[in-house]
Amino acid sequence: MCSPDQIPDFRIGSGFDVHRIVPGRELILGGVRIPWDRGLLGHSDADVLLHAVMDAILGALSLGDIGHWFPDTDPAFKGAASTALLHAILRSPQLQGWQIVNLDTTLLAEKPKIAPHHEEIRRSLAACLGLPVDRVSVKATTMEKLGLVGREEGMAAQAVVLLRRTG
Ligand code: MG
Q1: CA 1–ligand 1 middle distance (angstroms)
Q2: Can you point out the beta strands (E) in 72-153?
Q3: 9 CA to middle of ligand 1, Å?
């Protein structure tokens, strides 16, 4: 066994989130506004994909979750852009000395079709994280009409991120 200070300091984190689909809201995924007749319900802009990404980053460093960082009881975060919440996490003292190595995400949505927006979402995530696009993966799947996603009651997202200590 090597001593703890000899362990390469990489950290992996996973995130998961679900939001309800409702009429009369915009659909924002990975910071990109997607044209659709419905959107996601939430205290912030309900960007389910960015929420999963934030939870993955926080999880990698054992920093809790976004509900802890940005409580939905706090009016300051009502309607907040999730891109702004992500930037607040990335600028926080706890994230200094850490670099994101890569990000892999999966969006679970029955509709709308994600393929036409896939590259824009990927570029948006990469820009938010200050990463080259080839280190950011965005995948999407339906749930074959099964469960809450399949019935178009909600959308879900998963994210896995790897961090490396730089200082
Ligand atoms: Mg959420």
Answers
A1: 40
A2: 98-108, 136-141
A3: 29
pTM over 0.90: yes
Q: What's the CATH code, domain 4-165?
A: 3.30.1330.50
8 CA from centroid of ligand 1 (Å):
32
Task: Report domain extents, the chain.
Answer: 4-165
Taking the centre of ligand 1 as the mean of its atom positions, its distance from the CA of residue 4, in whole angstroms, is: 35
Rounded CA separation 96/5 (Å): 19
| Chain center to CA of 6 | 31
83 C-alpha to center of ligand 1: Å? 13
* 51 CA from centroid of ligand 1 (Å): 5
Q: Tell me which amino acid residue 43 is.
A: H
pLDDT tens for the chain, 167 residues: list them: 678 777 889 999 999 999 999 999 999 999 999 999 999 999 999 999 999 999 999 999 999 999 999 998 989 888 899 999 999 999 999 999 999 999 999 999 999 999 999 999 999 999 999 999 999 999 999 999 999 999 999 999 999 999 999 98
